[in-house]
Amino acid sequence: MPHEDISGPIDRWLQGDDTAFEAVFHYYRQRLLRYTFRYLKNETDAEDLTTDILVKVWQCRQSVTNPATFENYLFTIARNRVIKAWQKKVDHLFSLDAGGEATDPATANDPVLYGELMRHYQESLAGLPEQRRRIFLLHREQNLTYKEIAQQLNISPKTVENQISATLKQLRTQLAQHLASIIL
C-alpha cells in the first residue's frame, strides 16, 4: 500500500474507527519487524517487540494529535523500545553482581552485539579511577565480599559498597549511551 493510501486509514482510526487499525497494522507491521530485527538480530525478539509497539500505539492513539506525524510517533516508540531492550542486555551483563550467571558469548542471542558490548565495557572499565576499578574487579572477578575487599584495602565496607555502586551506575550509563548512539 503506497504511503498516501495509508493516511486515510490512519485518519479514520484516530477518529475512532477501530476497524481501520487493521490496515494500519498490516501496513506498518513488516516495516517495524525489519526495523527491530536490524537492531535486535533475533526473530523472536523482533516479533515480540513489534507486537508490543503496535499494542502501545493502540493504547496511546489519543497521543497522536496530527495524523501526518503518526509514522514519526510510531518509529520513535520503536526506537525507544529497542533501546530499552538493549538496556536489558546491558543490565544482564552486570548480572553477576546480583548473583546471576554471566552470559556465555557462545549462547548470546547476538554474539556480534555481545562482543561489541564487552569491548565497550572493557574500555569503560579501563577509564575508571584506579582504586574504583581495583575494588570493582576484586568483587567481580575474584568474588570477594565487600568486607574482604575492605580488609584487604584497609577501607570501610561502606566505601566498598559505594564504589561498586558508583561503578555499576557509571558503566550502565556509558553502555546505554553507546547503544543509543548506534541506533540514532
Give the SSE layout.
Elements (H helix, E strand, L loop, with lengths): L2 H12 L6 H20 L2 H17 L10 H24 L17 H16 L3 H11 L5 H8 L3 H27 L1
Polypeptide structure, described:
One of its GO terms (molecular function) is DNA binding. It comes from Chitinophaga varians. Belongs to the sigma-70 factor family. ECF subfamily. The chain has 184 residues and is mainly alpha-helical. It folds into two domains: 88 residues, Orthogonal Bundle (Rna Polymerase Sigma Factor, Chain: A), CATH 1.10.1740; 86 residues, Winged helix-like DNA-binding domain superfamily/Winged helix DNA-binding domain (Arc Repressor Mutant, subunit A). The protein is 73% helix and 0% strand. The protein is built from eight helices and no strands. Helix 3 packs across helix 4. About 3% of the residues have low confidence.
CATH homology superfamily of the largest domain: RNA polymerase sigma factor, region 2, helix turn helix motif
Low-pLDDT parts are 96-101
- Summarize the biggest pleated sheet: none
Looking at the overall shape, the CATH architecture of the largest domain is: Orthogonal Bundle
Tally of separate helices: 8
